[in-house]
Amino acid sequence: MRLPLLLLAAIAIASFAGPPLAAALGIDPHAVDLLERLIGPNAVHPLGTDELGRDVLFRLLEGGRVSLSIGIAAAVAAAALGTVIGLVAGYVGGWTDRVLMRATDALIALPLLPLLIVLAALDLSKLGLPAQLVKSDEISLLRILALTLLVGWTTAARLVRGATLVTRSRDFVRAARSLGASVPHILWLHILPNVLGPLIVATTLSVGDVILLESVLSFLGLGIQPPLASWGSMLSNAQELIASAPMLAVYPGMMIFLTVIACNLFGDALQRRWDPRAN
Amino acid sequence: MIRFAAIRLVEIAAMLVLMSFVIYALIGLMPGDPIDLMRSSDPRMSAADVARLKLAYGLDRPLFERYLAWIRDAVGGELGYSRLFAAPVVAALWPRLVNSLLLMGSSFVIAFALALVLGILAARRPNSGLDAAINLFCFAGVSVPTFWLALVLILIFAAGFGWLPASGVTSAGSSDVGDRLRHLILPVATLSLASAGGYTRYVRAAMREALAQDHIRTARAKGASEARVVFRHALRSALVPVTTVLALSFGGLVSGALITETMFAYPGMGKLIFDAVMGNDYNLALAALLLATATAMLANLAADLAYGWLDPRIAYR
């Protein structure tokens, strides 16, 4: 459990502290230097430079900041949405429950990647979104967040619904109800704490999934767009130079791999610790 | 069980109709339309030509009306014409579907064979060094970005040693089986390595549960050999959940290799869907996406049916 956590912490600290540090030292990761293109590792550029003469190490840290932010933000948002849906389905029951759970089943049964590609390629201005937003630099980031939210809530919804069904007829919940506790109070204070452990495990595991999904979409040219860069979009750019500068593609992929495996190992370790039945 | 399957089939059909409308509407929201594309490639086209073409293709009518016309034709078996391939949709789909099935099918077999061996080995000695190593392999498999794994394999075996071809289905002008197989090696290796990890975890968990049951102890006590205990007694009950996972993963048969196919320029269904979506080839994208959706939902049904068939304790409602 310690090793993956340390690895994750190291990647996160480097990614979030690296760019400000570079700025303080007067290094600009976006600075283009066409005289210093594709040079190998040296004292100034520990991992060399890319096709525009930018420092590869700082670009990697920048990409990590974007990839990690998306991974964590989208995983937490999707878990929150799933929690709300699960609480409603489990507590209200009846038709609401049936409809919500059928929707969950249907979503799980769909081939998600091809459908996400359609959604990622949509022309947002045709959807009636304001042009200012569609043209902004951050739109690719928001788009990825929205897509992940759309498909990522199912695991949390199922978990929370199951726990709600089990807990809602327990004596302490009935006691709270007979004392006049409001529904939000019961859900928040009596039911949610009972499912927090598995929910945290599921969210940790889904951070890795989101980072993978973002990298796939960015790799296909449908995710993060310039001027932003993520590990996936860096790899996509580097693919054209695969013959002359293979390491440009190897580094970002390695970072994705290390981050995702660390998330998965950490989630697994949490699960073993909190759920004795898991092993 | 027949009733259960029938209800589910009706549900799947309804879901497909719903999905066809959603996909139809979404594709209309993609940047540009086919007429715009024609116009940008032919500067002599006038605004009047554009209006006439839109009329001829029915693009001036409301969305729902267009959709109804499409689905009437589709139900009658008329899926339209693919713009990208300049061929009827079915003719464009068929060879790619065969390519994908070949690629996914062989990867499935290899990944599952690998998962059975590794899963059983790990389950027999839980918490041993071997178990830990296999566990790490599993996590590496579920965590590796497929496109990166493909890239690394290409760098090593195609660009580095030059042993294997990095793209396509056959070398130019060649039609022998050996050449075809050599082109399959790297994509199949990518897919099997990436998917074996997840399967191994299922096999290991199912085998551990099976080996912990009372009848295994009884079998050992009566003196059955270790091989007989593992393969005859434990594996049989472990195969119930494993078969379900197997059936579920058939859902990816059609579109599951999208990334791998793109990386290796392998003309399969995944790459076709991507190209059709990006190239505004409405008819082709719709048909291919619906085929992928139908396969995935049928695989889901197959998994449910297999589970009840293999384990009589499961009741259908």
Brief description of this entry?
By secondary structure, chain A is mostly helical. Chain A contains 12 helices and no strands. The radius of gyration of chain A is 22 Å and the shape is elongated.
Structure, explained:
The complex is a heterodimer of chains A (279) and B (317). Chain A is mainly alpha-helical and 279 residues long. Helix content of chain A is 70%, strand content 0%. In chain A, helix 1 packs across helix 2. In chain B, strands 1-2 form a two-stranded antiparallel ribbon. In chain B, a hairpin with a 4-residue loop joins strand 1 and strand 2. In chain B, helix 5 crosses helix 8. The radius of gyration of chain B is 24 Å and the shape is globular. Chain B starts with a helix and ends in a 7-residue tail after the last helix. Chains A and B meet through helix 3, helix 4, helix 10 and helix 12 of A and helix 1, helix 6, helix 7, helix 11 and helix 12 of B.
List the helices and strands and how they pair.
The complex is a heterodimer of chains A (279) and B (317).
Chain A lengths: L1 H23 L31 H37 L1 H16 L2 H9 L10 H4 L4 H14 L1 H14 L3 H8 L4 H9 L4 H24 L11 H8 L8 H28 L5
Helix pairs in contact in A: 1-2, 1-12, 2-3, 2-6, 2-7, 2-10, 2-11, 2-12, 4-6, 7-10, 8-9, 10-11, 10-12, 11-12
Chain B lengths: L1 H27 L5 H8 L5 H11 L5 H13 L5 E2 L4 E2 H36 L4 H15 L2 H15 L16 H35 L2 H8 L4 H24 L8 H6 L5 H10 L3 H29 L7
Number of DSSP-assigned strands of chain B: 2
For the biggest sheet of chain B, the summary is: 2 strands, antiparallel
Number of H- or I-type helical stretches of chain B: 13
Measured as a percent range, the helix fraction of chain B is over 70%
- Could you give a short account of the major beta sheet of chain A? none
**Numbering strands along the chain, what is their spatial order in the largest sheet of chain B?**
1-2
Largest interface comes to: A-B, 40 and 46 residues
Structural class of chain A: mainly alpha
Q: Ends of chain A: how far apart?
A: 15 Å
Could you report the average pLDDT of chain A, rounded to the nearest whole number? 82
Multimeric status of the protein:
heterodimer
Q: How much beta of chain A, percentage-wise?
A: under 5%
Structural class of chain B: mainly alpha
The geometry of chain B reads as globular
Number of helices of chain A: 12
Q: Please tell me how large the radius of gyration of chain B is.
A: 24 Å
